[in-house]
């Protein structure tokens, strides 16, 4: 795939790579090196030593390893887990930097505790992003590498916008950010899994709601608006959505490895050609589109060919430096992804599907929570076995395909690790002695789900009740908010934090993320986050779906998070922001809240009524499905859990 140009000079086979901020020079590495065929697992010492040896070959003093793949995906295939291979850290976000004598990992506050547990301090230094006094990556490089030093990275794994930003910062300090033809981790990773190329899944019109031909026509109108000849689509979920296809190349995310170039007259799909079989060709015909298929590895030459015509090409700010570098500067139109913004606003069929998928999913969650409470005293239910049981209940629901991510099934102190995943080594017994947090979701043909509930099956402490109640108050405040169209998520984020802030408490993650329709569980836009500069803060519109998930985490003790997926809908209020329209949020998630964790003395009458109204709807909607599924015991349990609460 990485077809950078080689210049061979005699037997030394010097490789010169021209890049935006510098020139890297080194010997080409022999693909026939017999060590690449030895699949014996390597130690951390061996991995870092070998990477540093190749760094010297390429004349770079630092090497950057992002956590993403060539499509800037958050969740990636086994083949692309270079970041994990080198660091042993399993979080989905972060950046590693290796120098000739140091190795550092930057990650945000969601993963600070997890990284502390997983990194070997003999080799790695954890840089906790967001904390006062912690240097950023470019600050650290400028402070620790000499002037004139070159810092290398893989051009496919760094976004063009980040390459430009970081490259400028390093250049101002006398250093150079350069791209290398070969990924140094791939060279060292002797037992790297092969890239997946699984069969594709046709998404029926009854689920997609709109033919691919209609989506392409809408995209071509945007080409005209921007006076562009073509657009390069690099997001895996964007390609899948445009073509009404899904895949299984990445666990729990129904996408497939592909790029797309769309012009006014042609659609060129870059993917493994073997899977474009007769069934998929028939799908293209039904969708009203004609598609030219080229090899996945041909994307750079495909861009070069398109650029040679002289027209302007639209690329996303999230595209890789490898893609941007193929287009002359005067032919680039770089904007926030047009397809991502199209996809974020669900059509009417998708919106109905999301509601129905969440209703069935809520039914599975209710059956699980009932089962858990009935069986917790057996003394043999753990975080892992509990998550497996929840999957079993989901698999009973209509249109179920798979999970939407690995369940965050966390008890007690493990709940304080925001994105904790239980393993054989960390798997805890679930008891009545602390809070159990379960963050999980499913992939259904008609929608993707994501829900978090925190429960205590015993006697919670006064502080646990206070923390839960303040999280709940923020959850209710955001969920009932009224706001004008295109309101930034930064404003809404503060609504969810205010009750916690009032007590000097907070949480270290965003409040809301978008979600796909049988696509990624995290989709941007929309985004509810306090950083107004975040590119994903595009503003909320009708039929966007976003999570509402405030939380609180007491280190080494417990974690609390409540999460519903909410739909942006028109608000029924007396005024409409001077003709702009008024919007609010409607929760499509239906599962009971933990009334025994509520401190009613902290809650207003309005907040109590919001809980009661929501529980009335949960009982009505989920209760009917429970009876259809002959889950009468769970129906009775749900009735108890949704009884009206009354302030004394």
Question: Would you kindly provide a brief summary of this structure?
Answer:
The chain has 648 residues and is α+β, with helices and mostly antiparallel strands. The chain contains 19 helices and 30 strands.
Output the structural class.
alpha+beta
Low-pLDDT residue intervals, each spanning 5 or more residues: 1-36
Figure out the total of helices: 19
- Terminal residue distance: 67 Å
Trace the largest sheet across and list its strands: 6-5-4-3-7-8
Nearest-integer average pLDDT: 93
Proportion in helices? 25-40%
Detailed description of the structure:
With 648 residues, the chain is of the alpha+beta class. 33% of the residues lie in helices and 20% in strands. The chain has 19 helices and 30 strands. The strands form nine sheets. The chain has a six-stranded mixed β-sheet with strand order 6-5-4-3-7-8. It has a six-stranded mixed β-sheet with strand order 14-13-12-10-15-16, sandwiched between helices. A hairpin with a 2-residue loop joins strand 1 and strand 2 (22-27). The longest helix has 28 residues, at 348-375. The chain starts with 13 loop residues before the first strand and ends in a 7-residue tail after the last helix. Residues 1-36 have low confidence and may be disordered.
Keywords:
19 helices, disordered N terminus, six-stranded mixed β-sheet, 648 residues, single chain, alpha+beta, globular
């Amino acid at each position: 795939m990485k077809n950078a140009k080689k210049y061979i000079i005699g037997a030394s086979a010097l490789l010169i790579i021209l890049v935006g901020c510098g020139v890297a020079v080194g010997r080409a590495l022999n693909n026939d090196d017999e060590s690449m065929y030895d699949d014996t697992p390597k130690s951390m010492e061996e991995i870092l030593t070998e990477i540093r040896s190749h760094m010297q070959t390429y004349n770079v003093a630092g090497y950057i390893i992002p956590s993403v793949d060539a499509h800037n995906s958050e969740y990636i295939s086994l083949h692309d887990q270079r970041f994990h291979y080198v660091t042993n850290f399993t979080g989905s976000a972060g950046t590693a930097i290796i120098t000739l004598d140091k190795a550092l990992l930057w990650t945000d506050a969601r993963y600070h505790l997890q990284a502390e547990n997983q990194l070997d301090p003999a080799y790695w230094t954890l840089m906790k992003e967001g904390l006062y006094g912690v240097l950023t990556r470019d600050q650290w490089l400028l402070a620790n590498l000499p002037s004139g030093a070159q810092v290398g990275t893989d051009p496919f794994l760094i976004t063009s916008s980040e390459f430009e930003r970081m490259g400028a910062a390093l250049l101002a300090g006398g250093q150079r950010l350069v791209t290398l033809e070969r990924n140094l981790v791939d060279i060292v990773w002797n037992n790297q899994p092969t890239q997946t190329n699984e069969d594709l899944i046709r998404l029926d019109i009854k689920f997609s709601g709109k033919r691919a031909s209609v989506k392409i026509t809408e995209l071509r109108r945007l080409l005209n608006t921007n006076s562009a000849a073509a657009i390069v689509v690099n997001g895996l979920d964007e390609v899948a959505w445009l073509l009404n296809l899904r895949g299984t190349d990445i666990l729990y995310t129904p996408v497939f490895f592909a790029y797309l170039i769309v012009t006014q007259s042609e659609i060129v799909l870059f993917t493994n050609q073997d899977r474009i079989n007769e069934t998929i060709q028939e799908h293209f015909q039904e969708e009203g589109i004609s598609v030219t298929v080229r090899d996945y590895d041909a994307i750079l030459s495909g861009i070069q060919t398109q650029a040679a015509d002289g027209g302007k090409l639209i690329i996303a700010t999230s595209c890789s430096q490898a893609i941007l570098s193929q287009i002359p500067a005067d032919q680039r139109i770089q904007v926030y992804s047009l397809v991502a913004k199209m996809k974020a606003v669900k059509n009417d069929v998708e919106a109905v599907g999301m509601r129905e998928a969440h209703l069935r999913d809520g039914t599975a969650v209710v059956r699980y929570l009932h089962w858990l409470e009935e069986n917790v005293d057996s003394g043999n239910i753990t975080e892992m076995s509990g998550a497996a049981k929840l999957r079993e209940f989901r698999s009973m629901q209509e249109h179920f395909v798979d999970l939407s991510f690995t369940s965050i099934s966390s008890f007690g102190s493990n709940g304080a690790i925001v994105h904790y995943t239980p393993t054989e080594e960390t798997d805890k017994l679930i008891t009545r002695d602390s809070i159990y947090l379960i963050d999980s979701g499913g992939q259904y043909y008609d929608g993707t789900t994501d829900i978090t509930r925190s429960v205590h099956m015993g006697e919670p402490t006064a502080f646990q009740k206070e923390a839960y109640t303040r999280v709940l108050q923020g959850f209710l405040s955001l969920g009932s908010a009224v706001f004008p169209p295109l309101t930034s998520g930064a404003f809404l984020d503060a609504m969810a934090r205010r009750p916690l802030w009032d007590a000097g408490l907070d949480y270290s993650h965003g409040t809301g993320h978008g979600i796909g329709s049988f696509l990624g569980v995290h989709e941007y836009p929309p985004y509810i986050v306090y950083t107004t500069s975040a590119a994903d803060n595009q503003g909320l519109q009708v039929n966007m779906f976003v999570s509402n998930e405030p939380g609180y985490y007491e280190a080494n003790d417990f974690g609390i998070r409540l999460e519903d997926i909410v739909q942006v809908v028109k608000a029924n209020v007396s005024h409409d922001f001077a003709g702009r329209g008024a919007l609010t949020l409607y929760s499509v998630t239906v599962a009971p809240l933990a009334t025994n964790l509520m401190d009613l003395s902290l809650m207003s009458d309005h907040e109590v009524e919001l809980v009661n109204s929501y529980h009335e709807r949960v009982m009505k909607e989920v209760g009917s499905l429970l009876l259809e599924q002959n889950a009468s015991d769970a129906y009775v349990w749900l009735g108890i859990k949704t009884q009206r609460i009354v302030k004394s």
